[in-house]
Design goal:
The chain has a seven-stranded parallel beta sheet with strand order 3-2-1-4-5-6-7, with helices on both faces. Strands 10-9-8-11-12-13 form a six-stranded parallel beta sheet, with helices on both faces. It is 41% helix and 14% strand. The protein is α/β, with parallel strands linked by helices and 450 residues long.
Length: 450
């Protein structure tokens, strides 16, 4: 790389715009951060149709990709979600369970990851072609799926290119139960150990997950970093100025994907109880904004649960494009952080919540990693547990805070949130990795890697 030239970073990711999944915001911000830091960025991802057809899409996000970034899209097949029965084999049509078992085994042959394993040769071939067209100085691969790491490993093993593993959650750790899901001697366990050993850096979204991996792979601990999700100021509602009208009732709101891990039934039970204890809450409403489940079609069980609570002021507001996030936050008086149980669970939305300066009710296990982020926030109302009485108590505290918090407390809450801007999390690592890319290129003989 000639003096003054821009290093070439290859970013390997599955969920890139127009994907609407929660991890897409980290992916978008990461690619844009490297571009702003002076890298030429190539994104290797899957076809747009995957999101349009299967998971749902947010087309507005494509407009937010830095225009200097080159996006290379390669085919991704998802047979288990293919609704076109005309293409089904006889085995799938007549014995769908047997077909599904065989499909899982076939998926895991190229790489030990169900559904995504067959993508490995496609990614590796595309990465080699990108490197042949213009030598890559650094690879950043983000999960999940973890097959993206295989493309980084390929370029590292064949061409000596340094790489970063960015875990959005974890591969061998169940972040909800805390159990190890891939044994060290399993094929996935061996793959992970090999990848971690070769990585220049390994990123995690919170300290709890990083610490688990540091204990599991102690020789790589010094190369492990917490890169929290943070919030994107261009979308977030910083220091919301809305003030409540208790006579009309308060507006409680949740924003994010509503999965089966979310304690929705527990929340509804606590909400109903709170309405019997407070006239203000009885006049109030709760709106859940987001997809019901991880796919295009809503999860029927979650949908039925919300519909059953409609007479109690609970409604589903549907999915929100990223460009509409600010307006949603500005329409609420109290925010609901309803999360699945897990010591290692943080959630990306917690940072956006803090940016608003609004009261936040935590409806999740107090031991969740999200509690570590929220601790010290002046307008935080955590539950002591997930029993209806405990949830109701937290709701009443938050309602009281919303009505009575003065401007000084609201200003202090907004100031607390500003520390969690995403750029503040990413910038130190992006800057440090430039030195890694430059050192790699400087160490090569003339013409190497071309």
């Amino acid at each position: 790389m000639p003096a003054g030239a821009r290093p070439h970073m290859l970013y390997v990711v599955w969920g890139f715009p127009p994907c609407r999944g929660s991890g897409v915001y980290r992916a978008l911000a990461t690619a844009n951060a490297f571009a702003r830091e002076g890298y030429d960025v190539t994104v290797l991802t899957c076809e747009r149709e995957v999101f349009l057809n299967y998971t749902g899409a947010d087309l507005t996000l494509e407009q937010e990709v830095d225009p200097t970034i080159r996006v290379v899209r390669v085919p991704f097949s998802w047979p288990t979600l293919d609704p076109d029965v005309r293409g089904y084999s006889a085995l799938r049509a007549l014995a769908p369970r047997l077909w599904a078992k065989q499909r899982v085994r076939r998926d895991r042959l190229p790489f030990p990851e169900t559904a995504y394993g067959p993508w490995r040769p496609v990614l590796e071939a595309a990465a080699e072609l990108i490197h042949a067209e213009r030598p890559v100085d650094l690879v950043v691969a983000t999960a999940n799926p973890h097959v993206t790491f295989a493309a980084a490993w390929r370029l590292h093993r064949r061409h000596g290119i340094p790489y970063v593993m960015d875990y959005r959650d974890a591969w061998s750790l169940d972040v909800f139960s805390g159990a190890r899901v891939n044994g060290q001697r399993s094929r996935a366990g061996r793959w992970e150990a090999r990848l971690v050993a070769g990585a220049s850096e390994v990123w995690f979204v919170n300290d709890a997950i990083r610490d688990w991996h540091a204990a599991t792979y102690p020789t790589a601990a010094a190369r492990m970093h917490t890169v929290a999700n943070g919030y994107d100021p261009e979308y977030a509602a910083e220091a919301v100025t809305r003030r409540p009208d208790p006579a009309a009732g308060l507006s409680f709101g949740y924003l994010g994907t509503i999965s089966t891990k979310v304690p929705l039934a527990e929340f509804i039970a606590g909400w109903r109880l709170a309405r019997t204890r407070s006239d203000v809450v009885a006049r109030s409403t709760t709106t859940f904004h987001g997809y019901l489940g991880h796919y295009q079609l809503p999860n029927p069980a979650l949908q039925a649960m919300l519909q059953s609570a409609a007479e109690d002021g609970v409604r589903h507001g549907g999915p929100i494009p990223k460009t509409g996030v600010r307006e949603v936050y500005e329409s609420h008086d109290v925010l609901l952080l309803v999360l699945g149980t897990g010591r290692y669970v943080t959630s990306g939305k917690v940072f956006e919540y803090l940016a608003t300066g609004l009261p936040v009710v935590s409806v999740h296990d107090p031991g969740n990693a999200a509690s570590d982020i929220l601790r010290g926030y002046p307008l935080w109302s955590p539950v002591e547990g997930l029993a209806p009485e405990q949830i109701a108590d937290a709701m009443l505290r938050a309602a009281d805070a919303s009505v009575h918090a003065d401007e000084a407390i609201r200003a202090a809450s907004a100031a607390f949130g500003r520390a969690f801007r995403r750029d503040a999390q990413l910038s130190p690592r992006v800057a440090a990795l430039r030195e890694v890319a430059v050192r790699r290129t400087a160490a090569l003989p003339a013409g190497a890697g071309a």
